[in-house]
Design brief:
The protein is 3% helix and 53% strand. The chain has one helix spanning 103-106; strands spanning 2-6, 9-13, 24-29, 35-40, 44-49, 55-60, 66-71, 77-82, 86-91, 97-102, 111-116, 122-127, 132-136. Strands 3-4-5-6 form a four-stranded antiparallel β-sheet, with no helix packed on it. A four-stranded antiparallel β-sheet has the order 7-8-9-10. It has a three-stranded antiparallel β-sheet with strand order 11-12-13, with no helix packed on it. It is globular and about 40 Å long. The relative contact order is 0.13.
Length: 142
């Protein structure tokens, strides 16, 4: 990733060999604007530092193209979906999925986009045949 500053904005450019091996299918900023997560047809997600453009971590788990990614409200987790029909909630420390959600439990077809609502504890998702879903979630009690 190359970040180019032009006046008051940044231009992001991916270059072959430095980023994903497939085209980038989704991108999201962390709530504080310090990180970017990209998802790709290469089945991976990558976490980038916005100020330096440096690759910080690679998240591997999807067995199909990544279709969507979103940060939770406080920026501590990323949720991703893929054409493999699975949604992953990622742990940044271990780079392993913290939770796996079988998309077939929720969707009629692979999830194509998702978004956290923030404080309302809702997740909105869409699937590849045009359905929209609203899912209420809660923290797992230990």
């Amino acid at each position: 990733v190359v970040l180019e500053k032009t006046r008051d904005s940044y231009s992001v450019r991916f270059t072959i060999g430095e980023g994903h091996s497939g085209y980038v299918s989704c991108v999201t900023f962390s709530p504080d604007g310090k990180l970017i997560v990209t998802g790709s047809r290469d089945h991976t997600l990558r976490i980038w530092d916005v100020s330096s453009g440096r690759l910080l971590k690679v998240l591997v788990g999807h067995t199909g193209p990544v279709t969507s990614c979103t940060f939770n409200a406080n920026g501590s987790r990323v949720l991703s979906s893929g054409m493999d029909g699975v949604m992953y909630l990622w742990d940044f420390v271990t780079t392993n999925p913290k939770r796996t959600i079988n998309g077939e439990f929720v969707h009629s077809a692979p999830c194509t986009s998702l978004s956290f609502s923030g404080k309302a504890r809702m997740l909105a998702t869409t699937d590849s045949i045009g359905n929209v879903y609203f899912i209420r979630y809660h923290r797992k009690q230990n």
